[in-house]
Amino acid sequence: AAKEDPAPADSAEPAAAPEKAGTNGAPAKAKGDAEARATGGKAARILSLMIPRAHLYHQDLDDSIAAQALDIYIDMLDSDHTFFMAPDIEQFRKEAGQLDDMVKAGDLSFAYRVHALFMDRVRNRMQRLEELLKTKPDLSINESYRWKRKDAPWAADEKEWNELWRLKIKNDHV
């Protein structure tokens, strides 16, 4: 059977999702031995049982806690909102209601998919950076860059994303 080729690195489209390897959703290239594959899923199941005991208000792992954990995970990966785009975040949040059940079942495929997309986005931006560095930024144009981006919106599309990075590099140049 023909395998789907990943999207080219210069595209903002994510690569095809990696094949599921084990019951915890680890990507095929990160398999390792069977014992290592099972460890992540087992840890997720244990965590889901421990949260009600460890949580300040003894809350169960539910949709609300999972959504908060998702926001923390996304912010950990992309704290300045320059790698993911708004459609990525919207898709992640659509799936947030299933995360608690996935973790309870030891299924980590969502976290692996988010991380794989993040890595695709990083590779894409490194290629974009190489292109941008081939020419000096035009300093005669008065432009501003919001460098404290923790609360800034993610780029709506690839055109906005590219402009954001052009301004980021110009700001770094100055």
Structural overview:
With 174 residues, this protein is mostly helical. The chain contains five helices and no strands. It has helices at residues 34-54, 63-77, 86-104, 109-132, 158-173. The longest helix is centred in the C-terminal third of the chain and has 24 residues, at 109-132. The radius of gyration is 19 Å and the shape is elongated. The N and C termini lie far apart (52 Å).
The radius of gyration computed from the alpha-carbon positions, rounded to a whole number of angstroms, is 19 Å
In round numbers, the mean pLDDT is 80
* Estimated structural class: mainly alpha
Please summarize the sheet with the most strands: none
Q: Between the first and last Cα atoms, what is the distance in angstroms?
A: 52 Å
Number of strands: 0
Helix content: 40-55%
> Strand portion, in percent?
under 5%
> Regarding quaternary structure, how should these chains be classified?
single chain
Q: What is the chain-wise order of helices and strands?
A: HHHHH
User: What general outline do the C-alpha atoms trace?
Assistant: elongated
